[in-house]
Amino acid sequence: MTIRDIRGFIADQTRMIRAPLVPEIALHLATEITPIWQATEAWLAQQGVEPPFWAFAWPGGQLLARYLLDNPDLVKGRRVLDFAAGCGIAAIACALAGAAFVEAAEIDPLAAAAIALNAETNGVALTVTNADLTGCIPRWDLILCGDVCYEHPMTEHIFPWLRDAARSTDVWIADPERAYLPRDALEPVTTRDIATTMELENATTRRTTLYRVLPNTAQDA
Hints:
By secondary structure, the chain is an alpha/beta fold. Helices cover 33% and strands 22% of the residues. Helix 1 crosses helix 6 and helix 4 (59-70) runs parallel beside helix 5 (89-96).
């Protein structure tokens, strides 16, 4: 698909929504009435589309966005990476809060296109990349991750890098008590109950915590 086709697909499959916790930010998201919410895996495969994680404002991303908008001094003037950025809500919040440079990373091309569209909608400038940045030497002052520990392989892939990066860079992760979160490598910062839907989370709220990732030590090596 061309960029125009991708943008048209996103517009057809979503509605403009403001998450209740972060009303400052408008996003192209799926709802119960949009086709992609109701789509089966078979339909997505026919369209060549990965599961649309980008079409939802997950609890971790919402907590990151809210915390940064409420505490802009934590991000103002800094270089920030929103890793596995989803819909881009945290990246957009960083830009609104005055970050000097914001990069949003998503390996799904459709997600990257959705992030760029959401950034335009909110009048902010982001750099969006499809690259898997795992293992990169950090070029940012702050790395943000929301809801990234939903599967064991994903956690195993990214967490050693995040802990290595934490030696020289602030690394934060916001998580709604996912099963594979390695809590012994984290320091809690703040916790909040975040509204969600039964269709998405099998619960009406998820207790979500923002953590600081602790760096690897010599004992961890």
